[in-house]
Amino acid sequence: MDWWQFRRSFCANIVFTMKTLFTFVLMVVLLALAGCASWSSGKGPKQVGSVVDYLYPNANEPPAMKSEVTRLRPPVRVGVAFVPGSGAATSLPETEKIKLLERVKASFSRHEFIGNIEVIPTAYLQPKGGFTNLEQVARMFNVEVVALLSYDQVQFNDTNVLSVLYWTIVGAYIIHGDQYDVQTLVDASVFDVRTHKLLFRAPGTSQVKGSASMAGFSERARAARVEGYNKAVDDLVPKLQAELDRFKERIKTDGSFKVENKPGYSGGGSVDGLMLALLALLGLLVAFGYVKRRAP
Questions:
Q1: Separation of alpha carbons 220 and 157, rounded Å
Q2: What is the 3-state secondary structure (H, E, C) of the chain?
Q3: Beta-bridge mates of residue 207
Q4: Cα end-to-end distance, the chain, whole Å
């Protein structure tokens, strides 16, 4: 083989190698882009905290409630807490949970038959802890009734049909990226700790829609999830207020409840023991003539 044949053969091999390498790199880039598209389509992060899983972890269905009479002693001491849940990698930060619990606390504090209200951090509730754990927490925070907030949030990701892929000398850019749809349910279930009885419940729901580029999708979607919880609680609070009002009226005629005021509580207008004693003393004074009634 002369020099020119060797040179042509060598150059041909170099060109073939470069074409093969370019094809391989192009395939890797396309697969990476396809992976990004598949990541941002379909169902995204999901967060679930179920009151049923927490209180009845080993039961196929909730057991029957205790048949004994539920005694309420106003002013009732109430605790509010989020149930433990799954999806920890994308769960709502504890600071945001406390803010939401403070809003629920405010809805209870407007009623005169409610006494101290304690916000209970989620860390005190054990996953699948059942009523045993709830009773421990109630003793720790000195509460008689607990409002448990369960939640179910799912984020749906879909590739936006308006997305455009641009190739430049430094790589690819996607404009308009993806759209997301965050659906949230927050449900408040209020239990009497001693009898394990569900007193009442109220739900709140929300839906948040938006879109973001691939570069900013994660942060925008995270902010949308927090917004979803806030809007769901916006929907929950007035419903919880209405259920509290209905419950206050129901216990007046429902034989499964017995209301016994704590010492010193007048019950919002009823006559307490001290006032009855004063009236009795006044009656005795009148009977013995120490107080003269003015003639008409």
A1: 12
A2: CCHHHHHHHHHHHHHHHHHHHHHHHHHHHHHHHHHHHHHCCEEEEEEEECHHHHHCCCCCCCCCCCCCCEEECCCEEEEEEECCCECHHHCCCHHHHHHHHHHHHHHHHCCCCEEEEEECCHHHCCCCCHHHHHHHHHHHHCCCEEEEEEEEEEEEEEECCCCEEEEECCEEEEECCEEEEEEEEEEEEEEECCCCEEEEEEEEEEEEEEEECCCCHHHHHHHHHHHHHHHHHHHHHHHHHHHHHHHHHHCCCCCCEEECCCCCCCCCCCCCHHHHHHHHHHHHHHHCCCCCCCCC
A3: 183
A4: 144
Residue 156, CB half-sphere, CA atoms under 13 Å: how many? 8
The predicted structure's pLDDT at residue 219: 81
Q: How confident is the model at residue 112 (pLDDT cuts 50, 70, 90)?
A: confident
The answer to whether residues 189 and 159 touch, using CB atoms and an 8 Å cutoff, is no
Say what the pLDDT of residue 177 is: 53
pLDDT tens digit sequence for 246-280: 998 998 898 888 988 888 776 643 334 444 444 44
Burial class (CB in 10 A: 0-12, 13-18, 19+), 48: middle
**Residues whose CB is less than 8 angstroms from the CB of residue 158 and which lie 6 or more positions away in sequence, other chains included:** 40, 41, 42, 178, 179, 180, 181
Tens of pLDDT along 181-220? 888 999 999 999 999 999 999 999 999 887 766 666 778 8
- Taking a C-beta distance cutoff of 8 angstroms, is the pair 193, 134 a contact? yes
pLDDT over 70 percentage in the chain: 61
- Contact in structure between 190 and 146 (CB atoms under 8 Å): yes
